[in-house]
Amino acid sequence: MASFGTHNNNIDIEAKPSKIKGAEENNSIDYFQRAQWLRAAVLGANDGLVSVTSLMMGVGAVNEDSTTMLLAGFAGLIAGACSMGIGEFVSVYTQLDIMVAQIKREREISGIISSLKKGCEDEKLPNPFQAAIASAIAFSLGASVPMIGAAFIRDYKIRLVVVAVLSSLALLVFGGVGAILGKAPVRLSCVRVLIGGWMAMAITFGLTKLIGYSSL
C-alpha cells in the first residue's frame, strides 16, 4: 500500500511541470502583437460583408435583376478593398511614426541611444503593410459572401432572403472568430456584430426603397 501511494505521488509531481509549462506558454502569447493584424482583418471582413450586403440589398430594393445586384456588389468589393487597404496603411503608418518619435524622445531623455534597435520593442510596433494587406483581403472575403448567395438565385424574393441569411451567418462566424482569437467573450461579440449588420442592411434597404417609391 505504501509503495502504491508513493507511485501516485511521483506521477502527480511529474505531471505538474507539464501543466505549468503549458500555462506559461499560453500566458506568453503576445495578444498585443496579435491584435495589430487581428483588428485589421476582423474590421475588414465585417466591413466588406456589411457594406456589400447593404449595397446589394439597396440595389435589390429598386431593381429585381440579379445581374445588376452582382455588378453593384463587385464594384463595391473592388472599391471597398482598395479603400480599406489604403486607409489602413495610412492610418497605421501615422500611428507608427508617432510611436517611433515617442520612443526616440524617451531614449534621448533617459540618455540612451536615440536610434532604434531591433528588439522586443520593435516587434510590438504596428506594421502598416501587414495591416493593409490583412484589411484588403479580409474585406474581399467578407464581400464575397453575399455575392455567392446572389449568383445562383434567380427569384427576386428568394435571392434577397438568401443574401440576408448567408450574411447573418457570416456575421456570427466573424464575430466568434474575432472573439476567440482575441480572448474576448464570444456570445457578446457575435450578438454585437450581428445586430450592427442587421441595422445597416435594414436602413440601406428601407431608405433606398423609400427613395424608389418617391421616384427621386
TrEMBL record:
Q: Name one Pfam family in it.
A: VIT1
Keywords of the record, alphabetical order, are:
Ion transport, Iron, Iron transport, Membrane, Transmembrane, Transmembrane helix, Transport, Vacuole
Q: Where are the transmembrane segments?
A: 37-62, 69-90, 131-153, 160-181, 193-212
Reaction equation(s) it catalyzes = Fe(2+)(in) = Fe(2+)(out)
One annotated Gene Ontology cellular component of this protein? vacuolar membrane
| One GO BP | intracellular manganese ion homeostasis
- Could you tell me the membrane topology recorded for this protein? Multi-pass membrane protein
Where does it localize? Answer: Vacuole membrane
Q: Which molecular function term from Gene Ontology is one that the record holds?
A: iron ion sequestering activity
- On whether Ribosomal protein is a keyword of this UniProt record, the answer is no
User: Which PANTHER family does this UniProt record tie to the protein?
Assistant: FE(2+)/MN(2+) TRANSPORTER PCL1
The family annotation for this protein states: Belongs to the CCC1 family.
Record's function text: Vacuolar Fe(2+) uptake transporter.
Q: What is this protein called?
A: Vacuolar iron transporter
* Organism field: Cicer arietinum (Chickpea)
Source organism phylogeny: Eukaryota, Viridiplantae, Streptophyta, Embryophyta, Tracheophyta
What gene does the UniProt entry assign to this protein?
A: LOC101512096
